[in-house]
């Protein structure tokens, strides 16, 4: 069943704004969670990259997250978001991103059909060997592309239609969210969270506590003061509630007790980063049974 | 005084004399800077407010208390949990107003004023005004009036803080709550 679009997983092309919720739900969530507004199940209607499927070569991404495939059964916490009272994103960490980029060398003519979409060049036809429809061109000859332009400033499609530029090595992959997109998604989630508590038939309901898809679970904890801690993790990962409380403690220690940090502003505290990463690693090691202590 | 994450379960204790000295140095420096007792009181209140808005998160993160449903619960949490956690004392709650919106906290001993005597030229200085600011800041989602009505430094037998609930501040409530 297709979900009407009132809650979407956090990864698809964010440039097109999600459609406003036309109908309350499609029946796939209500029938299972009668009266409990907290859990929203979303079915990802689009094909998104499944972890491990068709990855030919995995290149380390340019940012610092680990992208090596995990041993079978190991859990992962994908990312952490902290949203302030007004809905602005004040902290974001991508801890683990299951990237399967594919880099291949091509000769003229290119057997893939590329098309511009939004501000990227994406594969429209010619899926093979790990290069899927919808993947964006991430780098040409090792140099990252900048939207629709190469690193040198030339238009990507023009560059690739010129036989003189071949053979060329192109890296395809699922595009990463830019920080603006993350900001937008965080504020959208903030609004949905508020809607969640208002939709409730009971008085004094909490907002959205968990959002579940087939590839990840989003857990959200709102403090009594309005700060939201959002963790995206593997669906089998347990102990996220304890992790959220731990992140709250780390926030109250290393962000708030730093006198140079102003409230509700983006968190740029080294100690906060370090301790958060430590806490995530402890939670991940605990696996599906939750942390030992 | 505060537990640091990652340092094991041993809580780091600090000498309370150092705390008294630090607070005393703060107040005397403010007196030198402002020269006017009223200004010093205002500054202490402001500083306390900034401490309060941060302290409340630490308190909520560590104590796991839920939302208070009325002002009486708030008073209980303040006196029995918060004061105990941060100053090690448990004030008593008395003098409830008929409407239930005002009460007094009676502190037998105030750790901030160990060894302190107020001189005559600072008779209108409220030495522990920081505490009023902290309480105001911690309760930032409602407007409360917090003031000292008795002070051992001024010759009274106990220290009494009077707290009055004025109204909820709707703007400060988290989104989605009524």
Q: How many DSSP E strands of chain A?
A: 12
Quick one: how many beta strands of chain B?
4
Detail the poorly predicted runs of chain A.
1-14, 20-64
- Assess the beta-strand content of chain B as a share of residues: 15-25%
Main beta-sheet strand count, sense and barrel state of chain A:
6 strands, mixed
What is the overall pLDDT average of chain B?
A: 87
Arithmetic mean pLDDT of chain A: 77
The share of residues in helices of chain A is: 10-25%
Shape verdict of chain B: globular
How would you portray this structure in words?
The complex is a heterodimer of chains A (about 290) and B (about 180). Chain A is of the alpha+beta class. Among the domains of chain A are: about 75-95 and about 180-285, Beta-Lactamase (2-Layer Sandwich), CATH 3.30.450.70; about 100-175, Pdz3 Domain. Helix content of chain A is about 20%, strand content about 20%. Chain A contains four helices and twelve strands. Chain A has helices at about 155-160, 180-200, 240-255, 270-285, and strands at about 40, 75-85, 90-95, 100-105, 115, 120-125, 135-140, 145, 170-175, 210, 215-220, 230-235. In chain A, strands 1-10-11-12-2-3 form a six-stranded mixed β-sheet, sandwiched between helices. In chain A, strands 4-9-7-8 form a four-stranded antiparallel β-sheet, with no helix packed on it. In chain A, α3 runs antiparallel to α4. The radius of gyration of chain A is 21 Å and the shape is elongated. Chain A starts with about 40 loop residues before the first strand and ends in a 7-residue tail after the last helix. Chain B is an alpha+beta fold and about 180 residues long. Chain B is built from four helices and four strands; from the N terminus they run αααββαββ. Chain B has a four-stranded antiparallel β-sheet with strand order 1-2-4-3. In chain B, α1 runs antiparallel to α2 and α2 (about 35-65) packs across α4. The longest helix of chain B is centred in the first third of the chain and has 27 residues, at about 35-65. Chain B is globular. The interface of A and B includes residues 190, 195, 207 and 250 of A. Chain B: Keywords: Endoplasmic reticulum, ER-Golgi transport, Golgi apparatus, Lipoprotein, Palmitate, Transport. Chain B: Belongs to the TRAPP small subunits family. BET3 subfamily. Chain B: It comes from Gallus gallus. Chain B: May play a role in vesicular transport from endoplasmic reticulum to Golgi. Chain B: Homodimer.
């Amino acid at each position: 069943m297709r979900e009407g679009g009132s809650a979407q997983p956090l990864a698809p092309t964010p440039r097109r704004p999600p459609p406003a919720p036309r109908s309350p739900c499609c029946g796939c969530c209500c029938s299972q969670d009668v009266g409990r507004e907290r859990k929203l199940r979303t079915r990802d209607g689009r094909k998104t990259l499944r972890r491990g499927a068709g990855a030919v070569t995995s290149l380390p991404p340019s940012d610092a997250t680990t992208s090596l495939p995990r041993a079978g059964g190991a859990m992962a916490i994908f990312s952490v978001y902290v949203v302030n009272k007004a809905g602005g994103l004040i902290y974001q960490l991508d801890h683990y991103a299951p990237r399967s980029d594919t880099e291949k060398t091509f000769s003229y003519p290119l057997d893939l059909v590329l098309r511009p979409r939004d501000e990227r060049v994406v594969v429209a036809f010619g899926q093979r060997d790990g290069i899927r429809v919808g993947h964006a061109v991430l780098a040409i000859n090792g140099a990252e592309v900048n939207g629709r332009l190469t690193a040198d400033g030339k238009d990507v499609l023009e560059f690739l239609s010129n036989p003189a530029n071949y053979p060329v090595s192109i890296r395809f992959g699922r595009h990463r969210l830019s920080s603006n997109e993350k900001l937008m998604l965080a504020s959208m989630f903030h609004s949905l969270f508020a809607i969640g508590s208002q939709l409730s038939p009971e008085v004094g309901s909490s907002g959205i506590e968990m959002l579940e898809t087939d590839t990840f679970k989003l857990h959200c904890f709102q403090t009594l003061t309005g700060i939201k801690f959002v963790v995206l993790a593997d669906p089998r990962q347990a102990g996220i509630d304890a992790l959220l409380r731990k992140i709250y403690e780390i926030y109250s220690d290393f962000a708030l007790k730093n006198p140079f940090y102003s409230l509700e502003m983006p968190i740029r505290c080294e100690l906060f980063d370090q301790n958060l990463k430590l806490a995530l690693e402890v939670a991940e090691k605990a696996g599906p049974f939750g942390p030992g202590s | 005084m505060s537990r640091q994450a990652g340092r094991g379960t041993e809580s780091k204790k600090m000498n309370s004399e150092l705390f008294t000295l630090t607070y005393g140095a703060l107040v005397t420096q403010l007196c030198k800077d402002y020269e006017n007792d009223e200004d010093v009181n205002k500054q202490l209140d402001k500083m306390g407010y900034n401490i309060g808005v941060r302290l409340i998160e630490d308190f909520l993160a560590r104590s796991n208390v839920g939302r208070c449903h009325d002002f009486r619960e708030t008073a209980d949490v303040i006196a029995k949990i918060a004061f105990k956690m941060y100053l090690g004392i448990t004030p008593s709650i008395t003098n409830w107003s008929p409407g239930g919106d005002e009460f007094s906290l009676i502190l037998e001993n105030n750790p901030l004023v160990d060894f302190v005597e107020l001189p005559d030229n600072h008779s209108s200085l409220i030495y522990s005004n920081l505490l009023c600011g902290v309480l105001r800041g911690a309760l930032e989602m409602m407007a409360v009036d917090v003031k000292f009505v008795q002070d051992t430094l001024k010759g009274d037998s106990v220290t009494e803080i009077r707290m009055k609930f004025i109204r909820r501040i709707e703007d400060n409530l988290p989104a989605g709550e009524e």
